Amino acid sequence: MSITALILEASFVVQLVMLMLLAFSVIGWMIIFQRRKIIQQAGQQTLQFEDRFWSGVDLARLYQEVAARANNASGIEKIFHAGFKEFARLHGRPGLAQQQVLEASYRAMRVVHSRQLDKLEQNLSWLATIGSISPYVGLFGTVWGIMNAFIGLGAVQQATLAMVAPGIAEALIATAMGLFAAIPAVIAYNRFAHQVEKVDNQYQNFMDELLAILQRQSSKEAKEQKAESA
Fold this sequence. Notes:
mainly alpha; membrane; cell membrane; cell division
């Protein structure tokens, strides 16, 4: 008896379990392909922008370049745009100390950083859910199928292996489908979580580095103003 025939002849509950697991598998693979593209793109864009940032380009010029394509800017570019914009807005304003300006700039970057991280982590919880519950859903289908097989076996006087084998086989298909849905989801979730953590570290390191540069620039300008006034 073929696997297709076993599925078609399975009980309604087992078929419902198989249909649910098939839906889990389809949803999981859709999320995997979507997240894979987005997360890899974020990592590549981060490296490209960091190369541009450390190439010696003037920060004001780089800010104008990012602002010109703000709608299509990458995550790290939006973080830079928010931080430098806040710094430029508050820098030199009377009554504001250097530390206050830097803290405001860092807060602006933190807000954008949080939003970009949420975008990268979007739907990853679905992968974790699919990976954790699919084996149990499949196990439920297996238990139900085996239970029905033994109930049918108890209704006859002479039992044979040929009578119980199809019921057990269809039940085990549910377990196999549960594992088929769960294993890719778990592997993808762990891999994506690691990649998102890596991009997050790059974002945080960049924020600290940009803040240090802005602090040095602000201190240098303050010394120059003192020298001119003296």
